[in-house]
Structures are given as C-alpha cells and as structure tokens.
Amino acid sequence: MDWVTFGYLAVDGLAVGSVYALTALGLTLVYGLLRVLHVAHAGVYAVGAYGGWLAYSATEHLGFALAAGALAATLFGLFLEWWFYRPLAGKPPLIPLIGSIGLFLATGDLLRILFGPYQQSLPALEPRPVLFLGAVGVTAPQVAVLLGTALLLLGVYGVTARTRLGLAWRALAQDLEVASALGIHPPRHTALAFALASALAGVAGVLIGVYYNQVYPTMGDVPAYKALAVVVLGGLGSVWGTVAAGVLLGLVESLALAFLGNAFPPEGVAFLALIVVLLVRPQGLFGR
Amino acid sequence: MRQVFMALAVLLGVALAQAPVKVGVLAPLSGFAAADGRSALTGIELAVEEINAQGGLLGRPVELVVYDDQADPKQAVNFARRLVELDKVAFVIGASYSGASLAAAPVVNEAGIPFIAAYAVAPDITRDKPYVFRMGLLGTVQGRVGAELAHELGAKRVAILTIQNDFGRALEAGFRERAQVLGLEIVYRDTYPLGNKNFTPILARLRAARPEVLYASAYFSEAANLVRQVRSLGMEVRVIGQEGYDSPKFIELAGDAAEGVLITTTLDRDSTDPAVQRFLEAYRERAGIPADMVGASGYAAMQVMALAAQRAGGLDGEALREALAQLEEVETVVGHVFYWTEDGDPVKTATVQEVREGRFRRFMKFDRIEVLKP
C-alpha cells in the first residue's frame, strides 16, 4: 500500500473515531454516576441530529445547527433522566438497562412518525478536499469533525478534572453515600451530568449528520452498540480510556477494511477488539 | 308491495356490486427500508385512486389491506397468511424487498392467489410458482445493461463494488456475464454490507487500481455516501449505478457529487408517454417529492393486476393468473413490457438516466430484447 492511500485511511479513521469517542463519552459520564448502561443515549444522539437538521433547514447555518442539536438532545436527555432513570434509581441494574433498550427503540419510531422514514439531508459542508497534507486531501466535514471533537474533549476534560463540579462528580462516582454526607446533592449532579452527556451526544449526532449528509430515524442503531463496545473497551467510566478507545477503533476499522476487505463485517471489528482486550485486560484498556 | 320488493332488490344489487375488491399489500413501512415501503405504497394508492375514480375494478371499488412487513421475512410470512386466510384478498402486491418477497410469495402462491412483486429483484421469487409474477427488471438483466452501458462509454477498465445481498449478487452476475462478452477488464472487485456509511477505505484501494468506470450496486442512501466519498478522494472515475439509486433522495443527499452519475432503471422521466408524465405529476402532488422507481413500480403493479382482472372478467385466482400470463405489449410507467416469461418475469425496456443539474434525465433508452430477456 502506498503512502497516499495510507494517508487517506488515517484521516478517515481519525475522523470517524473521534465521533465514536464523542458519542461514547456521554455514555461514560452517565455510567460513572448512575452505574447504568444508558442504551437510549443513541436515541438522544438521533434526537440531537434531528434538532440540528431542523435548525439548519431554517437558518442554513452550521453553528445554529450544532447549538440546536445540543439543546434538543439536552432537553430530551434531561426528560429521560427525570421521568425514567430517577424513579428506577436503586433498582437492580438490569431493570433500567432493559427499559433503556425499549426507550431507544421507541425513540427511533417516534422520530419516524414525526418526521417520516426518509433520510433528511443536512448539506452544511461539501465533501471536497479543502486542505492538503502532501497528496492527501482532507475534506471540510473531516476538518469539522476533528476540530469539533477536539474542542469538546478539552472542554469535558476541563470540567471533570479542573472544576469543583468535576470534583463533586468524581466524589459521587466513588462513593455516593459519603459524598452525600459531605453536602453534595446527588439528584442535581446526576441531572447536570446527564445534561452534559446528552449535549455531547447531540453535537455528535449533528456532526455525523453533516459528515454523511444524512439524518434518519434509525441512525442511532449502530452507535447504540458500538458506543457500548467503546465504553467497555476503554474501561467503564474512564474518560480518557473512552476517548482513546473511540479514536483507536475508528483507525483500526478503517485499516482493517482496507487490508482485510469485507471478509467479516467492519461493524464486527469493535467486538473482536473488545473480546481480545477483555481476555488480556478484563478491566478494559484504561480501567483500574 | 311489488314496488317495495323491486326497490329492495335494486338496493341489494347495488350493495353487492359495491362490495369492495380487497387487495393485499405487503410493504416495509418501518425499519431500515421504510422509505422505499412508503414510496411503493404511495404509488399503489395513486393507482387505486385512479381506478376507483373511473368506476372501480369490474364495477367495484378497490380497498387496500396493507401490512408493514418491515422487510423482514418472518413478518412477511405471517402477514401473507393473514391476507389469504383472514382478509380473503383477490390478489397481493408485494411492495417489499427480495428477502420478504421470497418468504411471502410461496404462501400466496399455495393459496392459488396471484401475487406480483413490484420491485424485488431476486430471481427465485417467481421460480416454480405459477401464481407469482414480477413488475421490476431482474437484477441479472440490469447488470447486463450496466455492462452494455460501460462498453457504450468506451471504458475498458472497470471496477465492481457489490452490496452483500441478493440484489447486489444478481447485478454483479449479470454484469460479469456481459462484461466477458464485451471484453471489459475487471481491475478491482469488492463487496460491502447493507447500511454501510463509510466507503473511504474501499475507495482508497480502488483508486490505486485506476478504473475508468465504477459499477457499484447500492440503495440510494449508501449510493449518496459512495459518490460523495468518490468526490472527496478526488477520483475521476465514472460511476454507473442501477435502480437502487433511483430516488430524488439520492440527488438530495449526494448534492453536487451526484452530477454525471449514470443509472440503469425503468422510470424514464423524459418519456413522451402522457401516462408517465401524468403519473410523475400526480405523485409529486401527493408525496411532496418527485417520484422514484419504487413508487412507479407499485403504481404499475396495481395497474397491471387491474388490467388482467378486466381481461379475465372476474377475480377468480386461476382466471386472473391465466390473464396475467397472457398479457403482452403493455405500456407501463416503468417501461414497455413485451411479454411475461413462463416464470412470470417481465421482458421489458430499460432506461439509462443521468443526473444533470440536480435531476434525472434520459441518457439512452435500452430495448434490445436479447439482452433484456431473463
């Protein structure tokens, strides 16, 4: 394989991987605090994409689309937290998990009923090379995805590692009872973490909508299980592990497809990697 | 007293004459194929409206019994059974994909009720089932037309990218068969799964093989991503697709990248046939978007069944089957059907459409029977 082909693969893998990271990051935050695998997170992602699509249709402005996507996803996520997860707090983890799968399926069909089954177009950026690294062209959607993800990841790192809010979240994740005794109000913080996680999913939804120029009801189907694989791969609850696992998965998928062809479906790469990593490091790549 | 009896008899007669003709429809209205299911159903509904406005079928209004099979074979079988056992439909239109149609067709066939697959391409749907017919062009036939087109364009080096299902396999088989006859060199070949979004890894390798034409099977949402990513890699290759691309949504989603893409299909937007233009307009008015091949095939399937029922003069399954088998030289919105083969597959014209200025326009008409025969 020549260097140009490899370059194209690397850029593509990085861009796709960073969106995996963005989608899975919210899931990690929710898991860290609530200890539930929030499958409906992929539904929140689809709702965000639709919010972005509606805003873009009205304004033709990518910035508004991203903001609207984040807002729609945040509101929907908060609604789920308040109406669904909160009443189930303290129940065995299987109960919210199964309910969450149902919620996810219902969200896809709700979007279909509201907006129709057709793919909607979100043509904010043309897929033309705008930047050349040697002979390798990088397209505007790739730049947007890479830049957007990098900024958001830094933001999330800032919040979780450098603020009192992040400290409170880490305390809650470590020991809920002691943290409450020290004056941290769990419901408020859970809601806040949910809001942040959902906003990230919403932005990821809009970015993917722009990247492929498609927004559709079942767009959460693949992220629903792939994000789970990324979260487990990275070590449940580990922010950096999730980011590394997401980016790595994007790269490996891209290269695996190019080298191995479609001998097995590319969607299988995540789970193959998951099996291998769990055999060697049961706690995940960055888990402790 | 006698007058009262007369009046009652007339009323009863009218009521009997107006008992609706029930027509079964299996279409994927939710799930991954929901967009195609919606289009096909819209086409069928338009045809039914027209038939009812003209006094109905054999003097009786047509009523649709629609089930959402989600393009899932299991559901299609259950609903097919329901249609023939509980709903007692006169005939069934299979407005679903190959998998679901393959599952539903035998059930309907065994009940002695005619079934017409509107756009499913798998050859086996009609095999050894006397009551099962097809409206769409077989995948293998369309593949052959694709190879003819590549030859017509003067290409020697071609790449093939195949979607991993019956549709893709049938297209590739037809393309290869004809490519060999025409002396085309296949310089690259790969497959991808349904629903694939990211073609860049495959295309990056394909790029190195330097083909002049890329023959790629896909449905419109994959196709849109495919041609966008061809553009993003700066490739000059000419893309030939087929009826899976045939949707206004393909052009909308692919944007500028769709320009110059050629597809082999059956709906000719530039047809001078007034019936085609009338259909295109009626569809746009009803659906709010331009018609696609799937919608047009649903419409044509309903019309062909109605035509056969009129020829048969009744709705008896055997008579209807007989009439369908004997139809020939039928003009439909999805091509001129020369005749139906013994298997129930149509031998009909194809059209090549090119995307120009954001619309499908006719590139050439294809009517060489020796290539079009299944």
From TrEMBL, chain A:
<dbReference type="GO" id="GO:0042941">
    <property type="term" value="P:D-alanine transmembrane transport"/>
</dbReference>
<dbReference type="InterPro" id="IPR000540">
    <property type="entry name" value="Flag_MotA_CS"/>
</dbReference>
<keyword id="KW-0029">Amino-acid transport</keyword>
<feature type="transmembrane region" description="Helical">
    <location>
        <begin position="224"/>
        <end position="249"/>
    </location>
</feature>
<dbReference type="GO" id="GO:1903806">
    <property type="term" value="P:L-isoleucine import across plasma membrane"/>
</dbReference>
<comment type="similarity">
    <text>Belongs to the binding-protein-dependent transport system permease family. LivHM subfamily.</text>
</comment>
<keyword id="KW-1133">Transmembrane helix</keyword>
<feature type="transmembrane region" description="Helical">
    <location>
        <begin position="191"/>
        <end position="212"/>
    </location>
</feature>
<feature type="transmembrane region" description="Helical">
    <location>
        <begin position="255"/>
        <end position="280"/>
    </location>
</feature>
<keyword id="KW-0812">Transmembrane</keyword>
<keyword id="KW-1003">Cell membrane</keyword>
<dbReference type="Pfam" id="PF02653">
    <property type="entry name" value="BPD_transp_2"/>
</dbReference>
<dbReference type="GO" id="GO:0015188">
    <property type="term" value="F:L-isoleucine transmembrane transporter activity"/>
</dbReference>
<dbReference type="GO" id="GO:0015190">
    <property type="term" value="F:L-leucine transmembrane transporter activity"/>
</dbReference>
<feature type="transmembrane region" description="Helical">
    <location>
        <begin position="62"/>
        <end position="85"/>
    </location>
</feature>
<dbReference type="GO" id="GO:0005304">
    <property type="term" value="F:L-valine transmembrane transporter activity"/>
</dbReference>
<feature type="transmembrane region" description="Helical">
    <location>
        <begin position="97"/>
        <end position="118"/>
    </location>
</feature>
<keyword id="KW-0472">Membrane</keyword>
<dbReference type="InterPro" id="IPR001851">
    <property type="entry name" value="ABC_transp_permease"/>
</dbReference>
<protein>
    <submittedName>
        <fullName>ABC-type transporter, integral membrane subunit</fullName>
    </submittedName>
</protein>
<feature type="transmembrane region" description="Helical">
    <location>
        <begin position="130"/>
        <end position="155"/>
    </location>
</feature>
<keyword id="KW-0813">Transport</keyword>
Automatic annotation (TrEMBL), chain B:
<dbReference type="InterPro" id="IPR000709">
    <property type="entry name" value="Leu_Ile_Val-bd"/>
</dbReference>
<keyword id="KW-0813">Transport</keyword>
<keyword id="KW-0675">Receptor</keyword>
<dbReference type="GO" id="GO:0006865">
    <property type="term" value="P:amino acid transport"/>
</dbReference>
<feature type="domain" description="Leucine-binding protein">
    <location>
        <begin position="20"/>
        <end position="357"/>
    </location>
</feature>
<keyword id="KW-0029">Amino-acid transport</keyword>
<dbReference type="InterPro" id="IPR028082">
    <property type="entry name" value="Peripla_BP_I"/>
</dbReference>
<protein>
    <submittedName>
        <fullName>Extracellular ligand-binding receptor</fullName>
    </submittedName>
</protein>
<dbReference type="InterPro" id="IPR028081">
    <property type="entry name" value="Leu-bd"/>
</dbReference>
<keyword id="KW-0732">Signal</keyword>
<feature type="signal peptide">
    <location>
        <begin position="1"/>
        <end position="19"/>
    </location>
</feature>
<dbReference type="InterPro" id="IPR051010">
    <property type="entry name" value="BCAA_transport"/>
</dbReference>
<dbReference type="Pfam" id="PF13458">
    <property type="entry name" value="Peripla_BP_6"/>
</dbReference>
<comment type="similarity">
    <text>Belongs to the leucine-binding protein family.</text>
</comment>
